Structure formats: structure tokens, C-alpha cells
Amino acid sequence: NAGVTQTPKFRVLKTGQSMTLLCAQDMNHEYMYWYRQDPGMGLRLIHYSVGEGTTAKGEVPDGYNVSRLKKQNFLLGLESAAPSQTSVYFCASRPDSSFNYGYTFGSGTRLTVV
Amino acid sequence: LAKTTQPISMDSYEGQEVNITCSHNNIATNDYITWYQQFPSQGPRFIIQGYKTKVTNEVASLFIPADRKSSTLSLPRVSLSDTAVYYCLVGPYSGYSTLTFGKGTMLLVSP
Questions:
Q1: From B93, B97, B104, residue closest to A99, measured CB to CB
Q2: Consecutive 10-residue runs of chain A (114 residues): their mean pLDDT?
Q3: In this structure, what are the phi and psi dihedrals at residue B109, rounded to the nearest 5 degrees?
Q4: How many CB atoms lie within 10 A of CB A10?
Q5: Do residues A37 and A87 make contact, with C-beta atoms less than 8 angstroms apart?
Q6: What's the average model confidence in pLDDT over B41-70?
Q7: Would an 8 Å CB–CB cutoff place B40 in contact with chain A?
């Protein structure tokens, strides 16, 4: 049982390049999330999904797109990377809304945009 | 979720007891108090939750006074491996799509 797996773990991008971060969970969770974490800023929600085929904006969605074509996968895309998107990205999943705090987090992706 | 206030950072030494207080003056009747722990280079993990009085598990204790306007996470005899960010969240047990984690308290344990 792997839990939440994020790919890749590290990446360096040049400004303007695009990339996709993959999050996969094997727990049959309905809800999935993408957060970013910057020094001194805590965790900020980018986008989330409450089920296959659904997505919604979080606190800081600009510059990112997401897709949830399969229940187990939640993809985060950067179409044109900017230095301000240098951050650590965490994916998380949760069974549903029956328990608000049942999050399982991945180990993070450290992204540097130069 | 209810607004919470917790210290930005705390320092301690190995073997000491650490108490992290979270203020939540606007807590609602059906709100629970939940703490998460985030080790360096890892995502947060749930460590303890309570509604009133005291809750204890293998990781920590949570003390909640009768008025529930604050709570204290207690870590007994900390070790270097307890260095982490601790997040206090206050809200209902169920029914929400998302959580706001805030900035948490950075606990640094030194030898």
C-alpha cells in the first residue's frame, strides 16, 4: 500500500517551460488536493477535486491547471513556469467529507524555476 | 474553520516537555481541535484531535479547558526527531471539502 505517490521528487525548469506533476493514490479516496509550501507561508491550496472528473480552485490557482481523469490520479500542470512558482508542492488525498481531517499527504515535489 | 493563533516558532532542548498553545476564541459548539505535524521534507500528518478536556495518544497530549477558547498540545520529553512544524486546526468533524492549514508553529529541538 503506497498511499500517495508524487512524481517527480525534484525538478528544475527554465522560465517559460511547461511541466506536469503527477499525484497517484491507491486508497480509493474521492478527494484530492494540490498545495504549495513556501518558506514562512505555510501550506496554500492550489486546486482540489472532490471526485473523478471534477476540479475546483483553491487559494492560489493562478498559473496552474489540473485534471482528474481517473479517480486515482490528480495532475497539476504549469503551462509557462515562472520563478514565483519555485516551491515545494504537496499532493494529498482524503476519503470524502465524512471526516474533515483524514488527509494523507505525499512526500512532495521540489520545483525550482530559473 | 475557526481562526486560530499559535506561536510562529519555539525552541526546546532534548528531554524537555514542550507545550504549544493555540488560541481559538471563535470556536463553535460543533468544532473539534485537531493538530497536524510536518517533519522537514515531508507532508503533514494527523497526530491528535479532541473536543473537550484531555486526549492522549502515543505521540502527544491535547489539553482543552472548559471554555474551549484555547488548547495546548503537549509533547513529553522531546527528542531531536520532534523538530517539525505543528498546525492547529479548529472546525467541524465532517462536511468540509477543504482545510486551511495556516503557518503553524516551527518547533526546533536542540541537543
A1: B93
A2: 90 97 97 94 94 96 97 97 97 92 94 97
A3: -105, 125
A4: 9
A5: yes
A6: 94
A7: no
